[in-house]
Amino acid sequence: MNFHILTLFPEMVLGGLGTSITGRAMEKGVISVEAINIRDYSHDKHHHVDDAPYGGGAGMVMQPGPVCEAYEDLCARLGKKPRVIYMTPQGRVFNQTIAQELAGEEDLVFLCGHYEGIDERALELICTDYLSIGDYVLTGGELPAMVMIDCISRLVPGVLNNEVSAEVESFHDNLLEYPQYTRPEIFRDMAVPPVLLTGHHKNIEEWRRQQSIKRTLERRPDLLAGAVLSKKERKYLEALLAEQAAAEKAVEEKAAAEKAVEEKAAAEKAAEEKAAAEQAVAEMAAEEKAAAEQEAAEADGLSVFAEPSKEESPEGADRQEMKE
């Protein structure tokens, strides 16, 4: 399979794809990766390929001429017009199904934009597909192109040493891959699942499928709608869903019970605070009443012990009689 990348940074894509699995596949001739420098098709003496956008705005836009001429030159060499994929967040989100579809092509062209994008006329003339690797913006299309080429290459016969690998890893049958283990058998008190040590291939395969189903349910439940499952595996999934529903119900009941306890405690605290406030008011009223009564008693005492007047005093009368 042949990948052709139209880019302003050929060394970036060749450096990234020339290592590891894709690099070895290139050495074996299973795939080929060609980076075509769009600047080589500029008619500007400084090899400019961008200009200011019509209508104004920030940034620069890649001109249509160099892009179209780079593609047309490639078509002339190949003797055909291959499929052209433009890297853009406006495109369909790339996934394993699209990768499998593209792996059937003999030649694929990846057009990498830069700056504020490419003149729309060039895209209308040469692009057949618009793809994205996610809802975010990158500096250019080189990284998305490398991601897609890596993914597609794994599906090309002869790229992987173990041909089964591409069939059973994540997203096969729309399921995530099962957990993997290697030596040592026990690591920090964590043991390898016993079934993997039995050598019983049928049981191991069943365990791995169940783990794939379980992991997909836990991490990417949206994939299960398109999962390819046997009747037995569907029953296993139904049991997992029942367990999940029971666990969620238990969590909800626990939360409701904790909330009821909190509300009861809050109500008791509010009642205690109310009783304390009422008691404080009652004590204050009692104190005020006692103070008022004491004031009244003191006032009465002063009246009782007041000295009689001189005219009414018996002693004064006796003294008057003696004087006479």
Task: Describe it.
- The strands form 3 sheets. A 5-stranded parallel sheet has the order 2-1-6-5-7, sandwiched between helices. A two-stranded antiparallel sheet has the order 3-4. A two-stranded antiparallel ribbon has the order 8-9.
- By secondary structure, the chain is an alpha/beta fold.
- It has a domain of 166 residues: SPOUT methyltransferase, trefoil knot domain (Alpha/beta knot, 3-Layer(aba) Sandwich), CATH 3.40.1280.
- Helix 4 links the parallel strand 5 and strand 6.
- It has 10 helices and 9 strands.
- The protein is 51% helix and 12% strand.
- It starts with a strand and ends with a helix.
- It is elongated.
CATH architecture of the domain at 2-167: 3-Layer(aba) Sandwich
> Rough shape?
elongated
Largest sheet: 5 strands, parallel
- Runs with pLDDT <50, length 5+? none
Distance between the termini: 156 Å
Strand content: 5-15%
Share of residues in helices = 40-55%
Q: Find the structural class using helix and strand composition.
A: alpha/beta
Q: In the CATH hierarchy, what is the class of the domain at 2-167?
A: Alpha Beta
Could you say what the CATH topology of the domain at 2-167 is called?
A: Alpha/beta knot
DSSP summary: helix tally: 10
**Residue-averaged pLDDT, rounded?**
91
Oligomer: single chain
Number of strands: 9
Topology as H/E string? EHHEEEHEHEHEHHEEHHH
| Main sheet strand line-up | 2-1-6-5-7
Radius of gyration: 44 Å
Question: CATH superfamily of the domain at 2-167, called what?
Answer: SPOUT methyltransferase, trefoil knot domain
